[in-house]
Amino acid sequence: MALIPLASHFDGDFVIKLLPVDSENTMDEVAAAAATNVIGVHVFDQPGRTLRVRKQGADAPYGRSSTVAESGLEPTECIEIYFE
To answer: What is the pTM of this model?
Structure first.
């Protein structure tokens, strides 16, 4: 378990935020953590849709149950969170 600061960009938000996550967090947990600072503040909620996480510029998202450690993300790398 290690604290990893990631840069996060939530689709529709105009700000990139620093998001501290644990190396054992799943991508669903990472998306939920990012959403607490954005949904209802800068981005409307979209009930019934799933939040996904991908590395900035990647086409495919990470598996929802994959962990930050498994993703190979390094500190301050940028992730994108979006509704699928």
So the answer is: 0.93
Say how far apart CA 56 and CA 41 lie, in whole Å. Answer: 22
N- to C-terminal Cα distance for the chain? Answer: 29
| 35: alpha, beta or left? (left if phi > 0; alpha if psi -120 to 50) | alpha
Half-sphere exposure of 35 (CA within 13 A, CB side): 18
DSSP 33: H
What residue ranges in the chain does DSSP mark as E strands?
3-10, 16-22, 51-55, 78-83
Q: What is the CATH number of domain 3-83?
A: 3.10.20.270
Contact call for residues 8 and 40 (beta carbons, < 8 A): no
Max CA pair span of the chain:
32
* pLDDT 10s digits, 72-81: 999 999 999 9
